[in-house]
């Protein structure tokens, strides 16, 4: 089978998924079940290569409306998101949506903007060129390690989370000495082993880590980015933990250096899992959308000594719903006085909910700093009431 002839054989994909809702309960909503059947059924175009049938936010001017998508990659540092937002505000651009990930001192984000006057995509070449130059300077900062910044205005169609994985993988964020996020807690570090099945020519990848939403998506995306095909997989949720087993083979059938290949798979899989893991506090904010809102909020976070490790920005109608995962910029636990100061400074213009992100396998609990335990949906509903 070493001559690659196995690639000429037809393959039939058979997959069985046992799923629950986000609360771990059995799915009973008929509409949700029908939507899943429609998306995965024989009439689905989910495997289409043009990307137009993939629901959710996509990178590209025409993906979620008349917006421009900006992709940014660089060295992470406290206050970076605030500086990026300030540049966009100075160019009279409104941030409609954004996703920000950090890992191993690298940052990748996709930002959707439009013109604050016309609410149309920003397409003036001179304006875009000037904006790109300033954003690149902000990302570069005092970067002297030779790992520069990258800024681009995307025109393609790619699911945003999928694109973030591609950007961080291309940026080689999996190299960095295994720097851990948060307060250096190692209890949540995944356990990954890779063995070679000599008789079949497969690599057997075993992963044990804390279970969470989108974990399967993240690991499979990374295997795909590494040019591996999955021939067999077994996924089990064992209480708070997830166990994943993959039999993989390189897409061209070639066998790489055994030791180097195993080490690279382990590093890349760990990076895929940890990119979406955040420790510390999550701040959920809901406010009337306006130009410069993201710039103002991130400036307040920076002035209060908070560093953003992950962020999600969404606009629904004229309402902005933002989630920021933050930690103390100096690496210490976030002080309660900081949160109270933050609440007093922005609480009169928007609703704020604070939650402590668990550092172990226990279920998330709302922190004592929040007056009530709210889901983001209920927070939005209360704001509109």
Give your account of this protein's structure.
This protein is of the alpha+beta class and about 375 residues long. It has nine helices and 15 strands. The chain has helices spanning about 30-40, 80-90, 125-140, 160-170, 215-225, 260-275, 295-305, 335-345, 375-385; strands at about 60, 70-75, 95-105, 105-115, 150-155, 160, 190-195, 200-210, 230-240, 240-250, 280-290, 305-315, 320-330, 350-355, 365. The strands form three sheets. It has a nine-stranded antiparallel beta sheet, sandwiched between helices. A hairpin with a 4-residue loop joins strand 7 and strand 8 (about 200-210). The chain is globular, with a radius of gyration of 22 Å.
SSE layout and pairing:
Layout: H1 30-40, E1 58-59, E2 68-75, H2 80-90, E3 93-103, E4 106-115, H3 125-140, E5 150-154, E6 158-159, H4 160-170, E7 191-197, E8 202-210, H5 215-225, E9 228-238, E10 241-250, H6 258-274, E11 280-288, H7 293-303, E12 306-316, E13 319-328, H8 336-346, E14 351-357, E15 365-366, H9 376-384
Antiparallel strand pairs: 1-6, 2-4, 2-5, 3-4, 3-12, 7-8, 8-10, 9-10, 11-13, 11-14, 12-13, 14-15
Helix pairs in contact: 2-3, 2-7, 4-5, 5-6
**Distinct helical segment count:** 9
Which structural category do the helix and sheet elements fall into?
alpha+beta
Low-confidence region ranges: 1-10, 47-55, 60-64, 178-187, 360-385
Query: What is the rounded Rg?
Result: 22 Å
Helices and strands, in order, run as: HEEHEEHEEHEEHEEHEHEEHEEH
Shape: globular
| Helix proportion | 25-40%
* Binned strand content: 25-35%
- Topology, number of strands: 15
Main β-sheet, spatial strand arrangement: 5-2-4-3-12-13-11-14-15
What is the residue-mean pLDDT, rounded to a whole number? 78
First-to-last CA distance: 65 Å
Main sheet record? 9 strands, antiparallel
């Amino acid at each position: 089978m070493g001559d690659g002839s196995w690639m000429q054989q037809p393959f039939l994909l058979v997959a069985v998924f046992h799923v629950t809702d986000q609360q771990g309960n059995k799915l009973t909503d008929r509409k949700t079940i029908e939507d899943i059947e429609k998306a995965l059924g024989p009439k689905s175009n989910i495997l289409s290569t043009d990307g137009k049938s993939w629901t959710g936010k996509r990178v590209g001017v025409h993906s979620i409306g008349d917006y421009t998508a900006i992709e940014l990659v660089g060295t992470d540092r406290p206050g970076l998101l605030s500086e990026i937002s300030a540049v966009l505000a100075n160019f009279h651009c409104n941030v409609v949506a954004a996703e920000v990930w950090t890992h191993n001192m690298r940052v990748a984000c996709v930002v959707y903007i439009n013109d604050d006057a016309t609410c149309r995509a920003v397409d003036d070449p001179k304006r875009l060129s000037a904006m790109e130059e300033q954003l690149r300077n902000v990302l570069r900062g005092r970067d002297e390690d030779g790992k520069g910044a990258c800024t681009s205005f995307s025109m393609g169609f790619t699911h945003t989370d999928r694109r973030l994985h591609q950007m961080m993988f291309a940026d080689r964020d999996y190299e960095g000495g295994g720097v851990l996020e948060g307060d250096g807690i190692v209890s949540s570090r995944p356990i990954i082993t890779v063995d070679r099945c000599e008789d079949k020519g497969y690599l057997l990848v075993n992963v044990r880590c804390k279970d969470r939403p989108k974990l399967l998506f993240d690991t499979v995306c990374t295997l795909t980015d590494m040019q591996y095909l999955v021939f067999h997989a077994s996924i089990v949720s064992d209480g708070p933990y997830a166990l994943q087993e993959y039999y993989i083979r390189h897409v061209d059938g070639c066998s790489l250096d055994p030791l180097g290949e195993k080490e690279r798979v382990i590093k890349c899989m760990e990076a895929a899992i940890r990119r979406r893991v955040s420790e510390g506090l999550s701040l959920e904010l809901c406010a009337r959308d306006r130009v410069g809102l993201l710039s103002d909020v991130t400036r307040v976070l920076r002035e209060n000594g908070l560093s953003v490790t992950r962020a999600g920005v969404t606009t629904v109608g004229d309402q902005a719903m933002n989630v920021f995962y933050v930690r103390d910029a100096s690496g210490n636990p976030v002080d309660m006085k900081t949160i109270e100061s933050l609440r007093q400074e922005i609480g009169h213009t928007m609703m704020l909910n604070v939650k402590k992100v668990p550092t172990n396998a226990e279920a998330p609990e709302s922190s004592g700093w929040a007056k009530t335990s709210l889901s983001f949906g209920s927070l939005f509903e209360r704001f509109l009431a």
